[in-house]
């Protein structure tokens, strides 16, 4: 029992630390986006609650690789050993072996915390926005992995070529001053 509460408080401590660094990185991203779009003050943004993970964010962007990347909402993550966003459904084992990983570019790093918890980090440079992990996470876990157009990468096309083909109308033009529409407790918290 004592061991359990010790585990929980350690897990909470780790989660809070991760959450703080994610907030910082999203804050930095938003600030650079604000600077970049000071002309018209609008940016393209994905509503992760509308996205149906069709995969077109990887193939339809004018940039290659896409300006769309996966973001992980640590507040929603179960830190599962068996992560549907990380492991292929037919994986031989729950290990980090390349053949077991769902991500085609190995952009998700799995870090052991303590039995039975693992933490999943997205390497933005490797992510191509294919949404495979998002679909896996949504169908198996809490849906903590989700897509966003990264404003420090996006060239802010007049007409976003992904928005034109998005089957669920999940991409729209919003004021640059609006926070990223991300999942989790930190959603829409004011920037520092
Ligand atoms: S095109 Fe739309 S539905 Fe498809 S992955 Fe991108 S945001 Fe999601
Ligand atoms: S599965 Fe696709 S969306 Fe997810 S991290 Fe890998 S490249 Fe990015
Ligand atoms: S606005 Fe252009 S660069 Fe940005 S996500 Fe859409 S297609 Fe890609």
UniProtKB/TrEMBL annotation:
Signal keyword on record: yes
Signal peptide: 1-35
Domain 4Fe-4S ferredoxin-type: 42-61, 118-148, 154-176
UniProt xrefs under InterPro entries: 4Fe4S_Fe-S-bd
Annotated keywords: Signal
Top-rank taxon, per record: Bacteria
Protein name, per record: Ferredoxin
Species whose genome carries this gene: Draconibacterium halophilum
High-level lineage: Bacteria, Pseudomonadati, Bacteroidota, Bacteroidia, Marinilabiliales
